[in-house]
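Support request from a user on the community tier.

User writes: "When I paste my structure tokens into the form, the page sometimes reloads and wipes my input. The last time it worked, I copied everything first. Here is what I submitted, just in case something in the input itself triggers the reload:"
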């Protein structure tokens, strides 16, 4: 079953915020090249949400949507947001190697499944082919690995451990044997992928390693200096824990231009393992409308009382106000309307 039937990608709050943050950073690529000279490649699904925002905000009209589901072609074509979107029906590992990479690209490999070896192959393909000045992003499901046990198995520590090892062995196989299983099951290992968001951190590390390895191979083959600068490291949790990580491929010419982009001025810029966690608070429309007026204040403790002379933190928890202030410019407002 295709995930687009289960999830409306257009209205996931954190995903919505992420798109707007990406769009804001992409606007700074103007110092490298005209935005309309870029091509966007993504996985549009039936909603084409990222295509909508990038076409409208960046004036990109060269767009390719890769769709692995070939059984609903009419539905995808019907929902295509703009005629400039070229939908290519087949899996990404078939389509990406066939594309010509003659212009600068923004490529968002937005997977809804967990990291696996075929994703590393896709990363290798695009890193090996894109023009300098291109941006590459990878999104993947990073739910903490869990291995199903029946009630009897849960009560037996030995069986529990055996099942965990078996599950990790399967996971390791799908990741191209990049895990140390003995280390992962050690109770003393606080960075084990079986704990908290550690699997997300491991996935970022593996993706980063793949990008740098593919780029080093390309440098040798082309005999020129290239580098990868990470720009994003997002974690968020709409319906599942997700990671989005990526950055820009540069040569000597584009590297000099990229310094004028001032990517690091953006509060969500991340060029290492540090995480920007997109964590939107649950607020009512009335709360959002009231808070929006005062989010530009340096000190949110100066937000005035409401019409009934109540302090705002007596209505909305201060931790939610603090969360909102970080992302209010990107915060989605969904409402019912007749279009």
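"...and here is what came back when it finally went through:"
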């Amino acid at each position: 079953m295709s995930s687009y039937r289960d999830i409306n990608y257009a209205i996931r709050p954190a995903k919505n915020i992420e798109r707007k943050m990406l769009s804001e950073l992409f606007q700074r690529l103007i110092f490298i090249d005209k935005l309309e000279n870029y091509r966007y490649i993504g996985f549009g699904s039936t909603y084409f949400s990222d295509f909508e925002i990038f076409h409208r905000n960046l004036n990109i009209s060269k767009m390719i949507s890769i769709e692995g589901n070939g059984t609903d072609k009419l539905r995808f074509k019907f929902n295509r947001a703009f005629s400039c979107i070229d939908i290519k029906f087949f899996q990404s590992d078939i389509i990406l190697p066939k594309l010509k990479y003659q212009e600068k690209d923004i490529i968002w490999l937005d997977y809804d499944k967990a990291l696996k070896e075929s994703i590393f192959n896709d990363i290798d393909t695009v890193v090996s082919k894109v023009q300098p000045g291109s941006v590459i992003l990878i999104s993947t499901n990073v739910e903490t690995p869990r291995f199903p046990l029946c009630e009897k198995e849960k009560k037996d520590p030995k069986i529990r451990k055996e099942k965990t090892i078996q599950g990790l062995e399967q996971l390791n196989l799908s990741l191209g044997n990049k895990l140390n299983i003995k280390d992962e099951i050690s109770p003393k290992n606080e960075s084990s992928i079986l704990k908290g968001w550690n699997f997300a951190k491991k996935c970022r590390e593996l993706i980063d390693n793949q990008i740098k390895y593919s780029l080093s191979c390309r440098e040798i083959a082309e005999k020129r200096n290239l580098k990868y600068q990470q720009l994003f490291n997002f974690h968020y949790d709409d319906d599942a824990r997700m990671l989005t990580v990526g950055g820009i491929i540069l040569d000597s010419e584009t590297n000099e231009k990229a310094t004028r982009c001032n990517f690091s001025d953006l509060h969500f810029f991340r060029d290492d393992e540090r995480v920007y966690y997109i964590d939107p608070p649950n607020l009512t429309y009335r709360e959002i409308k009231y808070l929006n007026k005062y989010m530009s204040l340096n000190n949110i403790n100066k937000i005035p009382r409401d019409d009934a002379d109540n302090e705002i933190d007596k209505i909305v928890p201060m931790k939610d106000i603090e969360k909102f202030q970080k992302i209010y410019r990107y915060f989605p407002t969904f409402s019912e309307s007749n279009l």
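Agent notes: The reload is a front-end session timeout and is unrelated to the input. The first strand starts at residue 39 and ends at 42. The chain has three domains: 3-144+196-278, 146-190, 285-330. Escalated to web team.
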